[in-house]
Amino acid sequence: MKTIYITLLGVCLYLPGWLQAALTIEITQGVEGALPIAVVPFDTASNRNPPPQDVAGIIAADLARSGRFAPVPEQNLIAQPVETSQVRFQDWRTLGVENLVIGKVETVADNEYRIQFRLLDVLRGRQITGYSMPAKSGQLRYVAHRISDIIYEKLTGEPGAFATHIAYVISDSKNGKKEYQLQLADSDGYNPKTLLTSPQPLMSPSWSPDGRQLAYVSFEKKGRAAIFVQAIHTGKRQEIVSFAGINGAPSWSPDGRSMAVTLSRDGNPEIYSLRLSDKKLKRLTTGAAIDTEPVWSPDGESIVFTSDRGGSPQLYRMPAQGGRAQRITFEGNYNASADFSADGKSLALVHGQGGRYQIAVLDLDSGLLRVLTDGRLDESPSFAPNGSMIIYATETGHSGVLAAVSSDGRFRQQFSLSEGNVREPVWSPLVDRK
Amino acid sequence: MKFIQAVAVVLVFGWLAACSSTGDKKTADVAVVEDRSVEAGIDAASGDAMASAVGGYSDLTIESLTDPGSPLSQRVIYFEYDSSEVTEQDREFVSAHAVILAANPNLKVSIEGHGDERGSREYNIGLGEKRAQSVRRMMEFQGVLSSQMTTVSYGEEKSAVEGHDESAWSMNRRVELVYVAY
To answer: What is the pLDDT of residue A4?
Structure first.
């Protein structure tokens, strides 16, 4: 009775030809107390051609990756029910499983499927929720991530962030030539696609609040930096600013109308607010120090940035229209590269102390700083849009890789790429949730 | 004639005074840039005068740029961690470049700032820019035209040496002088 038919509007229409070596994820630090859940392989028996994706497998991997759930390994499943009537709840209780996910994938037309799933409460012996969702074969992974989002939200009370993307930069040497790529992948590292390739550095990707565009810095013009904005679906790009000196650190305002940027056009690295409709600039900082890495608070009222005005790089907060800045970090000799959590209550940042650079979270109310990672050269933290995880860049041996840590520091995982250095990950906002 | 005064001031107080006080940088910049646009015509002469005053660089010619034995063959200035101050030692050869540039107003140089990999990438862009500007400012005081110089910061994006230790980092905290037009 709870089966709701929904249509997925605005599903990313990925063009073919983008498939490349996927980022593979390895869980490097587990967590105790994760909720035991069983995700039973979805029934595909009715299909003449089996669907190209293992939907239940994707869901189980999502839930495990969150650190909040401990899916039962497939070989330990005691039964493979498809309908609620086939579930013997007492058997699952014996196994210690609290929740059960069952479902099926049916063909409705060529390359079109319907996925039905149910989330069951094993202790109470009843359904918590259930949906039926259509999907073209190219959308099966996305729909699986949406199902993971629904399960996560039902069981934790917080929105899931599985049906999201990460953007990042790869640098590689090919035949002795440097190559830089701006890439985009699903939040689990699958479906990577290259948005831009350049022989010159690419830097500082930043998502527009609607998740449709990325701003970034490119040095493609000889000897000069420029900030570009690129539409993800069409690939259309536009140069926003390219003054003499620095054109860096783009950050969108929450309403999407302005961008905070760092320019040195007036002689020193300063923060400016740039109105996108007419490119009107307003300078927000002054002084001889380096002021950079602006980020807007989610309410649009203030901007946090990095400045060495006190001698070493520290974070400061000022009104979004400029004005008096207050220092907000005091522990350690290096605090930089801030990213706001979506609720505006905390900042992820790079914290340097004793020659090591690690990812920390600053609670803005209490001023308490908590170091979450133990790397030597960790950088570029970016919150998941639901605040559950922070993705960042780290070094392993000789190459740069991405890693993610839960915002309480208890759970950690690593994204590896077969070749090249990966860095500057930025997690997309939560977009269209129809 | 303000330009001559500026040179005199530099000679009296030394390079250190001219380059280390961050608070005064901006006003000094503006004044010198304005002076030069008026008196560009006498640059060659003042360049020569300076060369002899600085000592040892009066025999530099444009050909010295391609002479491996010339002080101009050194094109990289190295910096301490989180610092944009040109060391005493490096001021010497930056002066040599300033002399040849001031004497040859058609010569153009790109001043490229870099940092090591530690810390955040955009802060390192800021640091590279400050390093490039330190060198630019020294050159301006020695009569190089603003129009002869461009600065760009690559932060940690273009390492000279790959590696995750001080031996690599010390080689990457640098400014490179790249002559773009002879």
So the answer is: 36
Domain with CATH 2.120.10.30 in chain A: 165-427
A359 touches chain B (CB under 8 A): no
How many CB contacts within 8 angstroms connect chain A with chain B? 110
Q: Where in chain A is the domain with CATH 3.40.50.10070?
A: 21-156
In this prediction, residue B182 carries a pLDDT of 62
**pLDDT at residue A433, rounded to an integer:** 53
Instruction: Suggest the residue from A251, A262, A290 to mutate for an interface test with chain B (most B CBs closer than 10 A).
Output: A290
Nearest by CB to A292, which of B23, B126, B154? B126
Mean pLDDT value of segment A321-336: 96
What is the residue whose two structure tokens read 């099966």? A140
The CATH fold of domain A21-156? Rossmann fold (3.40.50)
For residue A176, what pLDDT is reported?
84
Query: Given CB atoms, is B2 within the 8 Å cutoff of chain A?
Result: no
User: Cα–Cα distance between B181 and B110 in angstroms, integer?
Assistant: 10
ipTM (interface pTM): 0.89
Say whether residue B118 is in contact with chain A using an 8 A CB cutoff: yes
- The mean pLDDT value of chain B amounts to 76
> What is the nearest CA distance from B52 to chain A, expressed in angstroms?
31
Report the gap between the CA of B51 and the closest CA in chain A (Å).
Answer: 28
A377 CB neighbours in chain B (<8 A) are 117-118, 164
Q: How far is B101 from chain A (nearest CA, A)?
A: 19
pLDDT of A322 over the 60 cut: yes
- Report the candidate in B67, B158, B62 with the shortest Cα–Cα distance to residue B109: B62
Q: What's the whole-number mean pLDDT along residues A40-44?
A: 96
Half-sphere exposure of B73 (CA within 13 A, CB side): 6
> Which CATH fold would you assign to the domain B2-181?
60s Ribosomal Protein L30; Chain: A; (3.30.1330)
A269 to chain B, any CB pair closer than 8 A? The answer is yes
pLDDT digits (tens, 9 = 90+) for A153-204: 999 999 999 999 999 999 998 888 999 999 999 999 899 999 999 999 999 9
- Are the Cβ atoms of A288 and B117 closer than 8 angstroms? no
For the segment(s) A165-427, the CATH number from 3.40.630.30, 3.40.50.300, 1.10.645.10, 2.120.10.30 is 2.120.10.30
CA distance B171 to chain A (A): 18
Q: pLDDT digits over A354-371, tens only? A: 999 999 999 999 999 999
Cβ neighbours for B124, distance < 8 A, ≥ 6 positions apart? B115, B116, B117, B155, B156
HEC per residue, B4-35: HHHHHHHHHHHHHHHHHCHHHHHHHHHHHHHH
**What is the rounded CA–CA span in Å between residue B131 and residue B118?**
16
Q: Look at A223 and B112 and tell me if their CB atoms are within 8 Å.
A: yes
Could B120 and A337 be called an inter-chain contact, meaning their C-beta atoms sit closer than 8 Å?
yes
CB atoms under 10 Å from CB of B33, counted, come to 13
Per-domain residue ranges of chain B:
2-181
What are the pLDDT digits (tens) for A79-89? 999 999 999 99
Confirm or reject contact between B127 and chain A (CB < 8 A): yes
A292·B110 Cβ contact <8 A: no
Per-residue confidence (pLDDT) for residue A293, from 0 to 100: 98
Q: Look at residue B5 in the predicted model and tell me its pLDDT.
A: 45
